[in-house]
Amino acid sequence: MSAAAQPWGSALPHRAPDARPDGIRPLRVVDAPARRRRPRRAFGVIAVVGAFVIAGAQMALSILTTQGAYEVAALTQQQRDLTYQSQILYDEVAGLSSPQYLAANASALGMVIGDAPSYLRLSDGAFLGAGEMAGGSASIDAATRGSVPNALITGTPLFTDPDATIAEAPVLDAVMGADGTVSDTPPPITDGLPTPSTH
Amino acid sequence: MTTRTTRSPRRRTVVALAVVLAVLAGFIVRLVDIQIVNADEHVADSIENALGGSQTLYGARGEIVDEQGDTLAGSILLYDCQLDPLLITQIDTQILDGTSSRRPWIEVSDDVAEITGQDVAAVRAIVADALAENPHSRFAYLERRVTTEQYRALADLAMPYIVCVPHPARAYPDGAVAGNLIGFVGSDGTALEGYELSANSCLAPTEGSRTFQRGKDGVLIPGTEKVQAAEDGGTLALTIDRDLQWYLQQLIGEQVQDMGAQRGGILVVETKTGKIRAAAEYPSVDPNDPLASELDDRGNWIFRGTFEPGSTFKALTAATVVDAGGQNTESTVVASSQETFANGARVRDAFAHPAYAYTLTGVLIDSSNAGISKFSEKVDAQTRYDYFQRFGIGEGSAVSFYGEEQGVLRPSDQWDNQTLYNTSFGQGLTTTMPELAGAYAAIANDGVRMPLSLVESCTAADGTVTTPDLPEPERVISEDSASQVRAMLENVFLQASYSPQVAIPGYRVAGKTGTGEKVDPVTGGYKSGVYYTSMVGFAPAEDPEYLVVVTLDEPTKVTSSAANATAFQKAMTQVLKTYRVMPSTTSPEVLPKFG
Questions:
Q1: For an interface test with B, which of A147, A152, A165 has the most B Cβ atoms less than 10 Å from its Cβ?
Q2: Cys-Cys link to B232, which of A38, B53, B383, B461 (CB 3.0-4.6 A)?
Q3: How far is CA B291 from each of CA A174, B72, B286, rounded to the nearest angstrom?
């Protein structure tokens, strides 16, 4: 069986060297050159498959990246919409945290700013301060004489009195006496006992 | 041995290789040229000619916050919306031809007017006027500075001829609270007043840019985006407390109205640190709407107004003679209500009285001009000048507020015979509220004058904190002298006629009033019957923590400094409550008025 007939053979045809004791190689006619080894089909298949795999992988990667770009675009759009929403909300609540609004709301509830404070020291129970009772009137009139304007909330209704704004003073029921003290006569009950509205 | 036949293919290989290498080298050179040498040019070309785009990125202007970190000035976005009148007519024509199914402008303008709050006729007139002027007009402002909500509503109309451009703007959530300090920016974003202007380098953002390329469907091509991020402006923290600032602005507003005054101001200083906790004035400005205030009211009057102080300077003269003239709280002079001095100067008191043997305390309690003039002779004029200067009179303050004024204190060798005595009770010189506050704060702070400050720090976007450079604290009078002057000032508030009005139950308070004459710019003399009244004091007197100055310009209902008493008492009460200063547990030492 010749090497040519053995396509999956593994070696060149083995030729034992003609060794002579005198070390002189005799001249002889050269054989026809050995036929080149045929490349094995496996390498070819591997190369072709490899090329397809690489191309496929690249395409898949490219698709993924492009898909990512669309996702990024969608998320960017979403982010933009949310930014608009947060801006709209910021505009809506701007000014509601201002001291003017807080004070106007508090006085709509009938709250007053007290005078000099007194303190009870917990460590020894000592009473510090003059201990005078707070008067019935506030030291400033934030409700009807607001002198610190705020253009952001001029027309915003008060939380505690939706009919009033900081610019237009809420009308307090006349619980206070003329001298600023709390009246002895309670206001008449018309709609039954007042109950707090709870959630 | 090589033969011709073996040489020939080898040469061919070498030649082929050389050719391939040469071509490759050519490509490499060109590649380097395109990708590295002229890269910028090609990138610019690609952006200009191809589907590229670029965008300026705007950073947000920094916030101004108060001591607690509450926002006094913040950044928002408004939008300038514009119309394309030509496109409107083109679309309307298409609608008439039946080639467009959009809604006609006559309908859309109704919606637009409803969104922007404009009159429908006005909206239509914008387009009509633009076309009348130029039939090919492609630009007309619909409305400037619309809110995000309005802008989104306009965008939802999906009309190609409405375009809105974002416009960074400022919002001041607390309105006029600290408006005279913060200042404001113009509609074009230029800082115009107050800290918006003077701290612009802290607040201003740095612009960035973004370049990119898009596919046909408008989606960004991956890997083509280059972003140079914008840098937001820094946060400027002030030393003021906004709730206290609001209360005092409301208070001084009521007081100015009640007293029929032209203006009024309240300044609160933490004596141990020199930090200004409130600087309230009336009339004030709402930075959201500066045009609503008169031009004169849009600035700052506390830092830019100078006035002749009057009697508040008697305490500075008293401090001088105690510290350098060997006097004490019970040293006496004999003074009647009208005194003529050896150099011919004549000094009169505000009320008639016989010759009293006044103690230095008594001189301050009765605010005797004649008495303090006599005491002023215990030291020479130069010493008095030096002490005024060390108290910071005529120097302005370390705040260096934008456009801050300084009082005028002439050198003592320029004092004439009358001015020599007049300066001892605060005439013949001018000062400012911060100078007066700084001087009294030195007395309150054991004789050491702390530099006043209004800015806590500037925090840059990267977190770097910069604090303002302030001069070193300066000792003006000795600790003992300061303690004696404090005792006298406490007795002023205990024994003066207005004592009940300034008393704060539970606390020991010390202070002094001042009634300054006002120069009539027409005649050059003093105005008759109107004054610049002031009251300055600190509490608790035994260990002062806060100092309050209240001034009124030309009160008419009560023309004397008693006009300030109510406002001072309420202001000091609120300050003590805000900072939880504990009531006094000791009693004041009552000093004799007469010797």
A1: A147
A2: B461
A3: 38, 19, 9
Angle of CA points B241, B243, B245, to nearest 5°: 65
CB contact under 8 A, A130 and B505: yes
- How would DSSP label each residue in B172-200? -TTTTTTHHHH--B-TTS-B-SHHHHHTH
As beta bridge partners, residue B163 has B82
- Greatest CA span in chain B, whole angstroms? 145
Asked if A142 and A107 touch (Cβ cutoff 8 Å), the reply is yes
Whole-structure pTM value: 0.80
Residue pair B317/B363 in contact (Cβ under 8 Å)? The answer is no
Query: Do residue A150 and residue B288 have CB atoms under 8 angstroms apart?
Result: yes
* pLDDT above 70 (res A174): no
**B8-45 burial: b if 16+ Cβ within 10 Å, else e:** eeeeeeeeeeeeeeeeeeeeeeeeeeeeeeeeeeeeee
> Strand order of the sheet with strand B226-228?
B52-57, B208-213, B226-228
* Dihedral of alpha carbons B439, B441, B443, B447, sign: negative
Specify the amino acid at residue A29: V
Phi, psi (rounded to 5 degrees) for B315: -70, -35
Q: Coil, strand or helix: which one is B28?
A: helix
Assess contact for B122 and B110: CB atoms under 8 A.
no
pLDDT digits (tens, 9 = 90+) for B39-86: 888 877 766 666 677 778 888 899 999 999 999 999 888 888 999 999
Residue B439 near residue B314, CB atoms below 8 Å = no
Residues 112-151 of B with CB under 8 A from A: 147-149, 151
**CB-CB neighbors (< 8 A) of A98 in chain B:** 173-175, 177, 246
B585/A103 Cβ within 8 A = no
> Is the pLDDT reported for residue B3 higher than 70?
no
Measured in residues, chain A has a length of 199
Beta bridge partners of B91: none
pLDDT at B51: 67
Cα distance from N-terminal residue to C-terminal residue, chain B:
138
Amino acid identity of B320? Answer: T
Residue B262, pLDDT > 90, answer yes
* Tens digits of residue pLDDT in B354-402: 999 999 999 999 999 999 999 999 999 999 999 999 999 999 999 999 9
Residue type, B527: K
Compute the distance between CA of residue A96 and CA of residue A83 in angstroms, rounded to an integer. Answer: 21
B44 vs B289, higher pLDDT = B289
Across the range B245-253, mean pLDDT stands at 95
Rounded Cα distance between A177 and A25, Å, is: 142
